[in-house]
Amino acid sequence: MAQIRVHNVRKDFGAFNAVKSSTFTVEDGEFFMLLGPSGCGKTTTLRMMAGLELPTSGEIYIGGEEVGMKRASERDIAFVFQMFALYPHMNVRKNISYPLVSQGMKKAEVAKRVAEVAKILRIENILDKPIGGLSGGDRQRVAVGRAIVRNPKAFFMDEPLGALDAEFREHMAQELRALHDRMGATTVYVTHDQLEAMQMGDKIVVMNHGVVEQFGKPQEIYDWPATKFVAKFIGSPPMNFLEFDGSLGTGGTHVSLAGHMVRVPMSREEHTGELALGVRPEHIRFNDDSAYRGRVIAVEYLGTTQIVTIDTPHGEIKARTPSHQLAHVEELIGLDFDSRSLTVFNSVTGAALV
Ligand code: ATP
User: Fold this and answer.
1) Superfamily of domain 4-229
2) Higher pLDDT, 259 or 338
3) C-alpha–C-alpha distance, residues 197 and 193, integer Å
4) d(CA 68, CA 57)
5) For the ABC transporter domain, which residue ranges apply (predicted)?
6) What SS3 string covers 2-29?
7) Which of 139, 163, 190, 281 has the CA that lies 20 to 30 A from 221?
8) Are 44 and 235 in contact (CB under 8 A)?
9) If you take atom 26 of ligand 1, which residue's CA is the nearest one?
10) Alpha helices in the chain (DSSP H)
């Protein structure tokens, strides 16, 4: 078990800077997500943490020891990859035993450890089966079994569920999280799926173009996005941005949207110019008395809630409201925003001001 500390880590591939100076800490026993769109540098970051890639500069510590220049085999860690990487000519038992046998562990001890792991993963019944005949889920369990059998300091997982279909993926995600809760091993997990990151992670690093945009607990990142990029990447439908020219003073608590005063949380920074009011779809309410009005463009019924697309003086926005609050296409409706949950961004830099 170990804390992992990434300090000012940078990676260049020739002239291309894939990861800019990154700093964050994975606490001992955490399930930690590296999240971002394709090409943002999350796999490169994971590979540097695991010792499969050397950083161009910066330091990486595992359990207090600086390991930046050590190879993966010298770091006492284990991997689970998307493509499972099992040995097809060996049965399940041999696949799981392999890391222990290659360490020279005694036969009786190997058998004991494999039995324990098989019990944890509930795969006792397939131990003697060949890999070829297994379902995707069972292969995934065997790959996890091979990783956990050694009891390493930390686990590294790169989109381990990427090859599974959506329904099964969610089931396996729950299994992996439950397994982590039983074992408590430090785990670093790469995904581009924000929902998976929110559901599974204790903490999340959100990356974009090689930059760590934000690092924190799922709820902090959802409620207090540090940048417009994070606000848009997390949540579905994403946060709405009402762009306007205006000003927000230090300690300011209101912004004027086309003359309509909207209460916002206290600001940290002063800014006059292009601003964006960030509103999550679930923080918009219909209110006949509100002077801020928009025209309903579309209503998407989802059972208990509905997604209502509304044309406002500041562009199209999406509201998630209870389905019983009827909204009809072409109707003009008054809108209220839940002031505790609003964010104001500097539209040019994308940085949050409140
Ligand atoms: P994906 O989900 O698509 O794998 P990612 O966020 O994991 O994306 P990385 O694989 O870390 O992104 O790649 C980040 C950038 O670095 C990409 O532009 C990629 O093309 C580039 N890159 C990665 N590995 C190399 C390499 N060995 N040589 C050159 N460029 C590389």
Assistant:
1) P-loop containing nucleotide triphosphate hydrolases (3.40.50.300)
2) 338
3) 6
4) 9
5) 4-234
6) CCEEEEEEEEEECCEEEEEEEEEEECCC
7) 163
8) no
9) 13
10) 42-50, 92-101, 107-121, 136-148, 166-183, 194-200, 218-223, 228-233
**Domain parsing of the chain, residue ranges:** 4-229, 238-346
How far apart are the CA of 80 and the centre of ligand 1, in A? 18
Any atom of ligand 1 within 6 Å of the Cβ of 39: yes
Nearest CA residue ID for atom 29, ligand 1: 13
Angle 166-183/107-121 helices, nearest 10 degrees?
120
How does pLDDT run across 140-185, given as a tens digit for each residue? 889 888 888 888 889 999 988 877 777 778 887 888 888 888 888 8
* CATH code reported for the domain at 238-346: 2.40.50.140
Q: Is the pLDDT of residue 83 over 80?
A: no
pLDDT for residue 174: 86
Q: How far apart are CA 225 and CA 350, in angstroms?
A: 10
Global ipTM: 0.96
CA of 159 to the centre of ligand 1 (A): 14
Task: Please tell me which residue, 259 or 228, carries the higher pLDDT value.
Answer: 228
Of 163, 99, 101, 90, the residue nearest 131 (C-alpha): 90
Q: Which is the closest atom of ligand 1 to the Cα of 53?
A: 27
Residue to substitute in 12, 13, 34 for testing ligand 1 pocket (most ligand atoms within 8 angstroms of CB): 13
